Amino acid sequence: MMKDYNHTSGKQHILLLDQSRQSLPFLKALKKAGHSVTIVCNSVLSEGYFSIYPNKRLLWPSYIKDKNKFEEKLLDYISTHKIDIVIAVGDVSADIVARNRDEILKYSKVTVPRLEVFSLAADKGNTMMFCMENNIPCPKTFLFDQANKREIVHQIQYPVIVKPRRGNGAIGVIKFNDADEVLNHFDRMHQSFGDLIIQEYIPHHECAQFCAEAFLDNESNLKVCVVVSKPRYYPIAGGTGTTYITVDRPDIVSTIKNLLEIMKWIGAADVDLIVDTRDNIAKVVEINPRVAACIKVAFSAGINFADNHVRLANHLPIQNVKHYKLGVYLRNFVMETLWFISATKEMRANSFPKFFTFKNVVEETFSWSDPFTMLGYILGLLRKYSDMEKLKKKLHR
Q1: Is the model's pLDDT at 154 over the cut of 50?
Q2: Helix axes 373-384, 333-342, angle to 10 degrees
């Protein structure tokens, strides 16, 4: 029997738990499909709140500052309002949904895997152990704590990367060149970020970082894998991507398929990889258990991740996508400008695409059809970094 990929379950009442930039293409696609979308924000100064597409905006406590209150609000709201699907596109919101999955399912549908599977991706230590056990290309990694720190620092080749087991972006990710340097910083890092991992540093060229935007159905079959190159990031020493380009990398797709299908993943996953110059193999460095901040590049390449979430929640067939538009160029102009200011003349000259390329460029936080979101994004950044100490940490990370 031929599967009907055009059939939908009709108008859905959807609760989107994030105000961030990855919510923007979801809001547009869901509204265009005829669904009723309620977005949860912790501030009016955000791109999600400034979007024209939500049917309703809710102001709840920040799930970063007060996770328990957010959870209480969520469970109370879905038990007293008609919500067909709860969608989380952020790290913390996805974790909340995974941990409260059984309770949420009493009132609504979700698009995250069971907690035991979710935790394999949310915890970078678990991810790396899983990769090594299943022969998935990845850096050699050790779990790193007070008990074993002096033993481990002498077992690994330098330089190394030390990072938190949980977190997002490049926060807390530090490169060290020798054992003494690691030990001198260990207590401060452990106090700031909790449990850590230590792993071999992957030598790589400037444009050798990729992310894969994957989506798997309820049987853990890979249906979509959009591979994206990240040629620039800020801070320039290693931070959040500022520029993204869709590329064709069958080797990366094969790695992602093996990894996520063995893991029994369902729904969206964002996998970061670095190509190792020693063997030219793309190696998994982490899984983010949600869509990436740059997910708009996948939408622009022809993949409707919002519709895939709706289909997953309603157990409808999801189309197996082998091809997507290549060369789609997405940029975050605010972060790109900071990159340009910080970059050397040589970096600006050698970087591709060029900074002053404006033709056929998709902006991450702006579109003419939703014109106020960039303003909300900028105001949110100003609010976030109004504390000068936070700004200094961002600039000097």
Answers
A1: yes
A2: 50
Looking at the structure, tell me whether residues 285 and 346 fall in a common domain.
Answer: yes
CATH number, domain of 187, equals 3.30.1490.20
With 90 as the cut, is the pLDDT of residue 6 above it?
no
Q: Is residue 392's pLDDT more than 80?
A: no
Residue bearing tokens 């060369």: 327
Q: Domain range for residue 297?
A: 209-365
Residue 57 lies in a domain: yes
Q: Whole-angstrom Cα distance, residue 225 to residue 212?
A: 6
Tokens coding 315:
């157990």
pTM of the prediction?
0.93
Distances (CA, A) of 136 to 15, 34, 262, 264, 277: 35, 41, 10, 15, 17
* pLDDT tens-digit readout, 332-369: 999 999 999 999 999 998 888 888 888 889 999 999 99
Q: For residue 197, what are the CA distances in angstroms to 128, 189, 200, 320?
A: 9, 11, 10, 35
CB of 230 closer than 8 Å to CB of 388: no
295 vs 26: CA distance, rounded Å: 9
The partner residues of 142 in beta bridges, in order of sequence, read 198
Are 231 and 322 in the same domain?
yes
224 and 195 assigned to the same domain = no
| Domain end among 110, 128, 151 | 110
The reply to whether 330 and 214 lie within a common domain is yes
- Mean pLDDT of the chain, nearest integer: 92
> What's the one-letter identity of residue 256?
I
Beta-bridged to residue 229, according to DSSP, are: 210, 245
8 close to 310: Cβ distance less than 8 angstroms = yes
- 327 has pLDDT over 50: yes
